Fold:
Amino acid sequence: PYSGPKAAEILQKRKQYLSPSMFYFYHKPINIVDGKMQYLFDENGRRYLDAFGGIATVCCGHCHPLVVDAIVNQTKRIQHSTILYLNHSIADFAEALASKMPANLKVVFFTNSGTEANELAMMMAKLYTGCQDIVSLRNSYHGNAAGTMGATAQRNWKFNVVQTGMHHAINPDPYRGIFGSDGEKYAKDVQDLIDYGTSGHVAGFISEAIQGVGGIVELAPGYLPAVYDSIRKAGGLCIADEVQAGFARTGSNFWGFESHGVVPDIVTMAKGIGNGIPLGAVVTTPEIAEVLTLRNYFNTFGGNPVCTTAGLAVLNVIEKERLQENAFVVGSHLKGRLTSLMDKYEIIGDVRGNGLMLGVELVTDREMKTPAKVETLHVMEQLKDLGVLVGKGGFYGNVFRITPPLCFTKEDADYLVDAMDYTMSKM
Ligand code: PMP
Structure:
């Protein structure tokens, strides 16, 4: 049993000593003290089914024994910076990661977060092309440093940073977008941005395959191939942000971009890569990677022995436990059951996503698609009381984000849907 400080005491310390910008879920935030696979436990030993996985950061399951063992053993042996000396773990993990990549995406740079990975990717695109202009999608989230905050296109997450050279394209959002599911029509906007907003040459394009923070928005079919074409004709590089959609989460593929039939020039990743350990990576071609030899470049802890040992253990677990297949099977079942709830409850405007990256959008009016913000919060609180934790996102904060650890079972999925059904039946 847990005997440490309780929620009230922690809240008091947060108020006094931590940034006032820190936020939490739930009216009465829960103090999570233990995790085991798809479950979390609060200070009183109450168990919750975790359908958010720490924002898609946990892919193998909380405290997966094989990942924990790998981390502990490596920590006992040596943990240090990645610069100056050799160590096998960074090399072994880079090799394993490269083996999961298509085409000539074979060179890996490690970072400590998704923000850092995207900053590096965009810098490399600028160096490689000699251009400054980057196109990103409205409603995207790519990080919170100067460049990535510029690429991020949702005012909720943007401070007044200078965003030189950033162009935000119309989001190819099949549910709310102006062209429905016609990917090629949306793609025309990127060509227009290039033609009317730049010299005709750009550094690159960055997008998620499924927008996570943006509320599990799948890009309209046909969009990415057409955009990659426009960007490459303008001399730019295509960057895939796989921070949320990568690592088997979408079920049908290991990487989110694969379902769009494109091969990026640079792929960035974080979150699930380390099952909760701070780690990020940028993978690109040997030719593009050369740009970083123009100056000295390093990242003190990026790719350190403990984190890369964890990363390698994660890849092994995904394979051994067939987590991609599980994400596909359980995700399809869950999506099917969530979709059938739409027949019962008018408030569900849309169910979308792939594998175990699913979204449920609540609206007060299906025709107008009016965001049901208050109701979303209410259902989220009720679900918590029933022992189920889901995430929330989207520009209006009216989309449930369901991104559980990939060990989620059909029974877990049924429990989640039953809890949602029960909650909505009482509204
Ligand atoms: N890209 C995407 C798609 C993300 O969802 C996030 C984080 N929510 C980031 C980048 C930034 O990652 P980090 O918070 O690790 O810097």
Observations:
- The longest strand covers residues 357-365.
- The two ends are 36 Å apart (CA to CA).
- The pocket of 4'-deoxy-4'-aminopyridoxal-5'-phosphate is lined by residues 113-115, 118, 141-143, 208, 212-213, 241, 243-244, 270 (CB under 6 Å).
- The CA atoms of residues 216 and 289 lie 31 Å apart.
